[in-house]
Amino acid sequence: MRQKTRAFTAVVVKEDDLFVAECPEVGTASQGHTIAEAVKNLKLATELYLEEFPEKGKAHSVLTKFEVAAVAKT
Q1: CA angle in degrees (0–180, nearest 5) for 13-18-41
Q2: Which residues are in coiled coils (predicted)?
Q3: Count of CB atoms situated within 10 Å of the CB of 38
Q4: 48-73 burial, b for 16+ CB within 10 Å, e for fewer?
């Protein structure tokens, strides 16, 4: 029997010499020396979190972009 899976979002940013990955749907975060390592660690952190705190309902996420005015530094 195949295990049921669910897709989540990973937002990855570079901070100094590490990549930080966050899952906005669950609130988990992790890091790694590469993007792949950060996402792999985030997957593990999210799986462990969901084992302890199972989702009560299916939240639907929306991924969108927005713009802000550029501000020149003086």
Answers
A1: 80
A2: none
A3: 23
A4: eeeeeeeeeeeeeeeeeeeeeeeeee
Successive 10-residue mean pLDDT values, the chain, 74 residues = 84 97 94 98 97 78 84 73
How far is 11 from 29, CA to CA, in rounded Å? Answer: 9
What is the identity of the amino acid at 66? F
Beta bridge partners of residue 14, listed in sequence order: 19
What is the pLDDT at residue 4?
Answer: 82
- Cβ atoms of 6 and 47 within 8 Å: the answer is no
Q: Token digits for 15? A: 């901070």
* Residues 1-33: b if buried by 16+ CB within 10 A, e if exposed: eeeeeeeeebebeeeeeebbbbbebbebbbbbe
